[in-house]
Amino acid sequence: MAEMKAVSGVPESVPALLARNVAQFGSKPAYREKEFGIWQSWTWAEAAEEIQAIAFGFLALGVEKGDHVAIVGRNRPAMYWSMVAAMKVGAVPVPMYQDAVAEEMTYALDHSGARFVVCGDQEQVDKVIEVQETVHQIEHIIYQDARGLRKYDHTKLHSLASVQAEGRAASERFEKELADREASIGYDDTCVMLYTSGTTGKSKGVVLSNRNVIETARASSEFDHLRPSEEILAYLPMAWVGDFIFSIGQAYWTGFCTNCPESPDTMMTDLREIGPTYFFAPPRMFETTLTTVMIRMEDAGEFKRKMFHKYMEHAKKVGPRLLDGKPVSFGDKLKYWIGDKLVYGPLKNTLGFSRVRVGYTAGEAIGPEIFEFYRSLGINLKQLYGQTEATVFITQQPDGEVRADTVGVPSPGVEIRIGDSGEIYYRSPGTFVEYYKNPESTADTKDPEGWVATGDAGFIEEDSGHLRIIDRAKDVGKMADGRLFAPKYVENKLKFYPNILEAVVFGNGRDMCTAFINIDLAAVGNWAERNNIAYASYQELAGHKQVLDTIQQHVEEVNKSVAQDPMLSGCQVHRFLVLHKELDADDGEMTRTRKVRRRIVEEKFADLIDALYTGKSEQYTETEVTYEDGRKGKINATLEIRDAKVVEAAGQAQVAAE
Amino acid sequence: MTMMHYKPHVTADGRTIGNTMMEMKNITLRFGGVVAIKDISFDIREGEIRAIIGPNGAGKSSMLNVISGFYKPQEGEVWYLGEKRGPMRPFEVARQGIARTFQNIALFEGMTVLDNIMTGRLNHMSASFLDQAIWWGKAEREEVANREKAEEIIDFLEIQAIRKTPVGRLPYGLKKRVELARALVAEPSLLLLDEPMAGMNVEEKEDMSRFILDVNDEYGTTIALIEHDMGVVMDLSDRVVVMDYGKKIGDGTPDEVRNNQEVIDAYLGVAHD
Question: Containing domain of residue A60, as a range?
Fold first, then answer.
């Protein structure tokens, strides 16, 4: 139990870490943001002054200890400062997804009981004002970007600059109060509350203590030897636990610099300019980037294309071995060195990955080809497995033991246990305190001994000690004849094709598996352009015969690969269709973190599933869609349903024999 | 004759509309035998969004060119900021604080967005050719100040991502926005927009409308615009002048104009004798 007690001298809250950083790295950059075309930066000392001014301002507005302060906006230094300022006055910051529509925000704002909301810009302010029609406890709204807000009623609306100015003016009056509040923050007091994206049903407010955040940040920083000189790019939603841990937890623990992009559209340029040394991105981003690279290489001249393919082939052979420190012959090393000068180096530079020392991906399975592509370039891309309830880290891959199909070994301080049903349980210093105002769910998820059910099914590989995830535990089912049904396993294989953006596989309790497919408009659109195929919309392209042919090929290839695994050979896709619309979070078909909500898809497209199982060759359907501004409309289509070849499982007999 | 003075008033959405800024008095413009504008009078007040609408060939663009000083009307007077305007060259108009965009985009296609926008600052530069050539003292200070203003506008119009992109590679809707940026960077007191939404899809139109309103709101810029799309104009503008066959057939608030029988006829079409 010794490690559970804070080592004396270790700061016990994020504001305390801030004070330590000011003392240790006062003149080192803590935040950068590109504005007016120039990277503006703030040292730890300057950032601390800004945060203090906001904190004084919060006191002047009447923020009480234990209040919830909602933060909603894109990644900007001032938004992070507001979070830390809220902590300083003993309040709890509650970051929220900025792309949520007002309805979704209503739930979180109501449930958290937030009296104060800090907004990024007019768009967010408008939503909060809309929410106020039903949620009445919100007292003050604070915004950063004044654009379009000048003429609003400012009795309960304040610019962050004015809050800071008021704070600075009142600093003497509140100096003692602030010092007292800061000193009274305990190690087990709440540090932050984060709403889960809610793959299933209503989202829950996960309460994380200072202990959770600091212990996790310390352990994970040490695991990857993070240094104060690291640079990260903060571009993922602030409401997501990962961003909180990377941009606040680890940044404050280690003292490294958080860089904020100029706007969401300039992300790729900013990435290139900053050249982060520590980088996180969901698999989808690596996929998109790879797709873009491949499309651009297709358009390149013949010489360049040949050189690219020749050296990439070599990189695939040698790169990962070099990265893992395994022996490589001198000739291969030399060729890799030449390749680095000609291809890998310039490519990494273009993508902004030149300086990446530690890169992580998580959230979804990443395609082995995609994973290998980046590793072969010499980018130390690794996988981790985690969730909000664990303050991110459950397992992660140590340097030199990186594979595409596992998620690594337990992070320092984390214990893992596999339940009888195959579900993964963990216990760690990062284990969340509770779900806010929801003791039943807390009790369901966390047992009295502190073990938390992840909801994922998996197993630990005996020889390597690495964890492998099969699927969501509740999604793993049985087919009519009793064979194992693991939809995610098949979906991931399908999604590894650049042409397929999303796939949903059905078959639980049925006699065969079927699938919905979403094509990737970027990849398929480029193909269509190259082949002079005209199309006006996603829907038209999705219904094109040649597109369907290609997708059918992919499905059949996946069937072959699925048949290799005797345990899962029943999951081959017998029939499929390409959906007439992209699955979208605005229509509730996906979570904000872009995970498919299986139940909702099943309900919404029940007619299509029916058609898949009744042997029809086409089906007419109507679907309601929500536009970005919240209006609703209808689209209709007649979808072609195709049969895919399945492979007689070779391993079937063997399984029976075992 | 003295200028007519209106009491400044505050619109429903809280903007202040002040005194007359520009007044057109009995303007007639001919091209040889063709009469493009026939005896038209109207005014533009400080802080308002004033629209000129009408069917094709009504003389809207000619009217805008008269306002901008590009066409010299054969009859009538143009009063700007309390002074009668004599013959002027385009740069003199620009110096008076009038900036415009064009119906057919007139940007330098080979230059980047940023460089195009910087050209809009020309009137704010006074460093000599020599200073500019050796990049010394005043030239450098001015360039920094101009770049700062350009960046402010880039941020305002949300075109950061294309800052370094050559204009020729941009889609139409974005080019229109770059043109607006170039006009805005001159810090005009009167902004003339020639069909800012022509050829745009609904989403681009919505974006453009928002930017026009924001410009008016944020910088207090007076805006005179020509537009085809009735719906957009009625939502945007404070007052509307309606033209048909070179004549003014209506003038007033969008509601007044909408219910004007002559306007309805012009738009829906009636038999002309």
Answer: 12-280
Query: Has residue A291 been placed in a domain?
Result: no
Where is the domain boundary, A280, A303, A324? A280
| Owning domain of residue B116 | 109-186
> Across the interface, which of A36, A38, A150 has its CB nearest the CB of B217?
A150
Same domain for B88 and B3, yes or no, is yes
From first to last of the 273 residues of chain B, give the pLDDT tens digit: 344 444 556 666 666 777 889 999 999 999 988 899 999 999 999 999 999 988 888 889 899 999 988 888 999 999 998 888 887 887 888 888 999 998 888 899 999 999 999 999 988 888 788 888 887 788 889 989 999 999 999 999 999 999 999 999 999 989 999 999 999 999 999 999 999 988 888 888 989 999 999 999 889 899 999 987 778 888 899 999 999 888 999 999 998 888 888 888 877 666 655
Closest CA to A248 of A536, A31, A509: A31
> Is the minimum CB–CB distance between A262 and chain B shorter than 8 Å?
yes
Task: Show the CA angle centred on residue A426, arms to residues A423 and A432, nearest 5°.
Answer: 120
Q: Where are the beta strands (DSSP E) in B46-119?
A: 49-53, 75-80, 83-84, 98-101
**What is the tally of structural domains in chain A?**
2
Apex B142 CA angle, B141 and B143, nearest 5: 95
Considering B170, B186, B202, which residue would you say is the last residue of a domain?
B186
Cα separation, A14 vs A86, whole angstroms = 11
- Provide the CATH number for the domain around residue A113: 3.40.50.12780
Rg over CA atoms, chain A: 26
Kindly identify which residue of chain A lies nearest to residue B212, measuring between CA atoms: A148
Cβ of A151 within 8 Å of Cβ of B217? The answer is yes
The Cα A18–Cα A585 span in angstroms is 36
| A293 domain-assigned | no
The reply to whether residue B160 touches residue A147, judged by beta carbons under 8 angstroms, is no
Residue (of B247, B273, B245, B241) closest to B260 by Cα position: B241
Is there a domain that residue B103 lies in?
no
Tell me the ipTM for this assembly.
0.80
Of A280, A295, A319, which closes a domain? A280
Closest residue, chain A, to B161 (C-alpha): A266
Q: Which of residues 163-192 of B touch A (CB under 8 A)?
A: 163
Q: Any chain B CB within 8 A of the CB of A265? A: yes
Does the residue B102 lie in any domain?
no
B166 and B245 both lie in a single domain = no
Domain boundary residue among B156, B186, B216? B186
- A212, part of any domain: yes
Q: How far, in Å, CA of B92 to CA of B260, rounded?
A: 38
Nearest to A32 by CA among A217, A256, A252: A256
